[in-house]
Every structure is written in structure tokens, then in C-alpha cells.
Amino acid sequence: MKKRITPILFVFTTFIMAACTKPTEQKPNQTPLPEEINLELGDPVETLAPNTSYKPAFVGQTRVGSLQTKTKYQFKILTTQLASPWGIALLSNGKFLVNEKAGNMRIVSGDGAISSAITGIPTVNSSGQGGLLGLLVDPNFGSNRMVYWAYSENATGGTTTAIAKGRLSDNETSMENVQVIYRANSAHNSGLHYGARIIMDANRNLLICFGERSNMSTRPLAQSVSSSWGKIIRIDTDGKAALGNPVFSGTGALPELFSMGHRNPQGLAMHPENGEIWLSEFGPKGGDEINWIEPGKNYGWPTITYGVEYSGLPIGAAIQQKEGMEQPVYYWDPVISPSGMAFYKGNKVPEWKNNLFVCALSGTHIARLHIHKRKVMGEERLLKSENQRFRDITQGIDGALYAITDSGRLYKIDAE
Fold first, then answer.
1. Cis omega (within 30 of 0) on the bond before 302?
2. Is the pLDDT of residue 20 over 50?
3. Are 394 and 413 in contact (CB under 8 A)?
4. How far is CA 197 from its chain centroid?
5. Predicted confidence band at 271 (pLDDT cuts at 50, 70, 90)?
6. In whole angstroms, what is the distance from residue 208 CA to residue 197 CA?
7. What is residue 160's three-state secondary structure?
8. Position 19 confidence tier, pLDDT thresholds 50, 70, 90
9. Quick one: which of 370, 371, 383, 379 has its CA closest to 414?
10. What are the DSSP calls for 214-255, one per residue?
């Protein structure tokens, strides 16, 4: 015989159940998803305590929900024999051009075979964080065979970052007619924060990011319009300031400046559909950043930051926001040390389309960021089990991703 619940008991039971049931809570810092975005998000991938108690400027600026790729994918090591590779770029024949930090440039085939060092490369100073750095293969390489690269060199007063160009010979063994087209406009006795990645915009102008050389004496140069350091510059392929550059106010403002207020940028990428420019840069202790770059804008370093000194002391006035200075789209605390990055333009892994893949050095993974309308919606950490310092990444002619590591590995990442 079924028992009956009296109205009074029913009301009391319902009250107790409601009181004991917690309302659904939004995960910390997780951006509410627009209706057109269909993502399944878990808890943030970062579980370690931050270095600071600083609060993000907006929801979703840090520690967004985690993603997990549903499409089956695989990765394999093509070679372990590269020597501290720093930059990788795709050639029109499907091979890759690779810069090695000590000063050698090599060609690597899709099966991992490595060429002898290409001759004709200027001498580099590879001490500290210097060496043969960012690399760009001209989009018209099939017809002009032009290559552009950044490197650190000795100069009066210390070292500086130079930008060179040359033609890769038909037999792929030498760089011909090499010219230095740009040098940062001062030298410093520092082996740190040279930059420097290179991309080309739709008007065939070069965009190059420079660090501020790290020293307390050079750090303020990121806010000086008369210095190349801590900037993105925009020049033509002959090294002259590009037409249409923003005009910065202040004494001695350089005409090649595009943006300012950067600390140690090592990743630069252009969105494949809308042409937006994105930058990764190292913070100090905490405060690694992903920035969407607009011409003429100031990105704040060292006035505002989400990090602190390595000693734990605050930086400057310990502020994170200031009028006239841009907020990072996303930041990490603790740091992951973001280096080279690339947008995925393939279709083999559908959920990766237009996602930003960021190489992490101290984080020893590749961060996948799903971005929608300039906001990070979700984050995934790939190849974490490999325990590698990932330095740069690009996409191959076959649609797969190819990533290099400081230990000399070249990875291929593709759908199964």
C-alpha cells in the first residue's frame, strides 16, 4: 500500500530540498558563451596559485574554461637533430626553413631530413637570448625566393637586433644578395629581450616586434617614442617606414612605429580571415600576455602589468589599468613563457579552425586558444606529456601543424 505525503509534510520537504540545493555557479573568469559558440568547457587548465592577488579587468581575461579536442589527432617527432631552433617557416615546395639560435639556417623536409647550413648568413651574437631569431618566407617565394629574418649582432655600445633579407639560391644552399634593411636604433649591454618575430601584411609591409632589453635602465624605452625597443615596427621590404603608419606624438617619434609598450614579445601572427594582428609577450613573474594589436596603441609596459618583479616586489605603482593604455586580451599567472604562435587554417580538425596555437617554453606545452570577437573563450594544453620547451609553430602545405622545441625536435601534429 502506497504511503501518502500530507500537504504540510510535502511543503516542508520541498523547502528543505531547495535550501540544500546550491544554485548553478559560473566557473571563475569564464566568459559567458554567445549563442553562436558551441563549446563544452571544463574547469580552467591552470590549477597553480597565481603570483599576485591582482584582479582581471574583465571576465575571461585569465583562466577561462578548458577545452578538449574531440577529433582524434596524433603527433610524431620528425627529427631530434636540430640545434636550438628558434624560427620555422614553410617554403612553397612543402619543405621548411629553420633558424638555429647559434646562427645557422637549414632546410628540413617533411620526413625530417636536415640540410647542411645555408651559407651567406651574417654573423650573429648568440649569447643570452640572442642569436638567429624570427623568420619569414615571402608569400611570393615561388616567384621571388625572398626570405627575411631577425638576428642579434654586435654593435658599438653592446648588441642590437637587425633585420636582413636575401634570396635563397635555386639549389637551396646559399642566401644571395643579403642586405640588412633595419637595425634597432640603439645598442645595449644586455643579452635579453631582443624580440623578434616577423610577419607580412596584405600591403607587403613587414611587421616586427622588439623587446625592451630587460635592464632597469632600458625598460622605460618601451614608453619612449624615439626608441625601437619595446615596439612593433612596420617597414617596407627595403626597410623604410611603411606608408600609412600611425603618427605618435612626442619628440623624435620614429615614423616606423606601429605600437608601443611591449616587454618581451616573441610571437606575432595574423588572423587568416580578417587580417587582425596578434602578439604574445612574456610578462615578468606573472602577467604573460596575448594582445590584439591596433596601430598607434600603447600596451602599457612597464606602467601597467599583471606581474611582479622576480623578487616578488611590485613593478612601478603596481597598477594594472590606466587610461590610454590597452588591456591584454588574455594573460597567464603563473607564466607559461609564450613564444612563437600561429592560427590554424586547416580543416582536418574542424574545432581548431581559426584557433590560435601558442608555443609555451616554461609551460612545456602548446596552448590552444579559441577566440571569438577578440575574446578568449576556452583554452587547451596540447603535448604537455612531451615535456618540451616549444619555441615556434607553423602550418604545413598538408594542413598539419609543425612545431620546433629548444631541445632540437620537430613535431608534426595532425588528424589521425
1. yes
2. no
3. no
4. 9
5. very high
6. 6
7. strand
8. very low
9. 383
10. SSTTTGGGGG-TT-STTEEEEE-TTSSBPTT-----STT--T
Q: Which three cell numbers stand for residue 323?
A: 587610461
Q: Is 372 exposed, middle or buried (0-12, 13-18, 19+ CB in 10 A)?
A: middle
Q: What is the CATH T-level fold of the domain 28-415, as seen in this structure?
A: Neuraminidase (2.120.10)
How many other C-beta atoms can be found within 10 angstroms of the C-beta atom of residue 296?
13
Q: What is the pTM of this model?
A: 0.92
Domain boundaries of the chain, sorted by first residue: 28-415
pLDDT at 34 over 80: no
Residue 365, all three cell numbers:
606545452
Statement: residue 2 has pLDDT above 50: no
For 39-90, give the DSSP string.
Answer: ---BS-S--SPPSS-PPPSSTTSSSPPB----S-EEEEEEES--SSEEEEEE
* Closest to 51 measured CA to CA, from 214, 284, 266, 281: 284
Mean pLDDT along residues 375-401: 98
Of 188, 193, 262, 365, catalytic: 193
Strands across the sheet with 338-343, in order?
Answer: 338-343, 356-360, 365-372, 375-382
Write b or e for each residue in 373-401: b if 16 or more Cβ atoms lie within 10 A of its Cβ, otherwise e: eebbbbbbbbbeebebbbbbbbbbeeebb
Question: Any idea what the Cα angle at residue 181 is, between residues 180 and 187, rounded to 5°?
Answer: 75
Q: Among candidates 322, 281, 283, which has minimal Cα distance to 303?
A: 322
Burial group, residue 205, by CB count within 10 angstroms (0-12, 13-18, 19+): buried
- Give the H/E segment covering residue 7: helix 7-20
Give the separation between CA 13 and CA 27, rounded to whole angstroms: 30
Rounded Cα distance, 92 and 113, in Å: 17
Tell me if residue 193 is catalytic: yes
Rounded to 5 degrees, what angle do the CA atoms 245, 248, 253 make?
100
| CA–CA gap between residue 277 and residue 136 (Å, rounded) | 15
Peptide bond into 334 cis (omega under 30): yes
234-134-309 Cα angle (round to 5): 90
